[in-house]
Amino acid sequence: MHRLAVLALACLLLATPTTRAQDSLSLSCAVCHGARNAPSTVPSFYGMSTAQIESALRDFRSGAREGTAMPRLAKAMSDDEIRALAYEFGAPVR
Fold it and tell me: Which residue range or ranges hold the Cytochrome c domain (predicted)?
């Protein structure tokens, strides 16, 4: 039930106009993906590069990568939102 509520919140945030603060979108991603100790069924962003995150989101959006919730969520993201999320969560280039 908790996962369904989180998914519903993420969908709601992604379905709202892009004028909504970027923080809301970031928060909806971080709920499942942002922690080192994310649930084992949900991959964590920890250690992923900006390019890896951006590529994964674009692949989900295009259908090249399968998933349960992410294909639907990524289809609602603009190119700018994908870049911003990848930049925010991606590991710095060394």
Answer: 16-93
